[in-house]
Amino acid sequence: MRKSLKLALIGAAILGSLAIAGCGDNSKPSGASSTQESKLMQTIKQRGKLIVGTSSGYPPYVFVDADSPDKKVIGLDIELCKQIADKLGVQMEVQDMGFSALLSSVTSGKVDIAVGGVNPTPEREKAMAFSDIYLPTEQKLLVLKKNEHLYKDMADLDGKTIGAEKSTTQETTAQSIKGANVIGLSSVPDAILQLKNGKLDGIVVEGVVAKQYLVFNDDLALADVQFQGAKKVSAVALPKGSDDVLKVINGIIKQDTESGQFDKWVDEYSKIAVEKAKK
Q1: How far apart are alpha carbons 45 and 40 in whole angstroms?
Q2: DSSP state of 37
Q3: Which of 72, 132, 210, 270 has the most C-beta neighbours closer than 10 Å?
Q4: What pLDDT, on the 0 to 100 scale, is given for residue 87?
């Protein structure tokens, strides 16, 4: 009898131990999932490289260094991406393309992040994630200097042909002009050429960028036209569900904003763009 009781107690103890072990095993996947890296973070680390998409011709954000052997893209947004790559402990690769293809390259996985004065609009936020914003500015109207006096307000643009880079917030702003004929172009340099050739009456351009083109194009000017609600900010675009990568990017943006680094880059790359344009 005592032997049977003893065996029963031992059996109960073993079952209790197994039950406790089972509970411990079930808790492990939950703990592991909370620290799991996002798909983007895993891809970047496994590759050992951060692939950055951009659309050059947008100084001081991004533009081609024509003096470099490989015609590399430089600018303040490239400096930002270098910091991101360094923080992640990987190399950086830049892929230059038209802006109309840039954001779709993020959602398709062709690039890891996209920069180049990218504005995080509500429509874009439906398809991808965006970092905290930086460098707020305004949309401006670039015209031939000889015609500057003709454009004082929005009413003066009725019936005029206005250009802007395709798929940008500048194109959206241009489309809001009542009675204007809006033409989307592949890049800002292309739009400048069309303006000088008389095929456009004006171009909607981000203020910071417009000032760069004024420096080395003395036949251009900024019109007095004010676009209502056309404030412009920049952000880094990346795939949704990449919160760990986003946290790294936001930390760097916060640091560069508070230290005044963005303003320093604007000055630095504005000067570089001007010097290279003189050659």
Answers
A1: 9
A2: P
A3: 210
A4: 98
Q: Supply 94's token pair.
A: 């830049």
- Alpha-carbon distance of 43 to 271, in angstroms, equals 36
**Every domain of the chain and the residues it spans:** 39-133+235-278, 138-232
In the numeric block, which tokens belong to residue 269?
């790359």
Give residue 278's pLDDT.
67
Pairing of strands 134-144, 161-165: unpaired
CATH topology of domain 138-232: D-Maltodextrin-Binding Protein; domain 2 (3.40.190)
- Counting as low any pLDDT under 70, the low residues of the chain are 1-35, 278-279
Q: Can you state the angle between helices 76-88 and 243-259, rounded to 10 degrees? A: 130
- Listed residue (232, 225, 108) closest to 165, CA to CA: 232
pLDDT at 134: 96
CA dist 97 → 49, 110, 210 (Å) = 19, 12, 20
CATH class of the structural domain 39-133+235-278: alpha beta
pLDDT of residue 35: 67
pLDDT at 216: 80
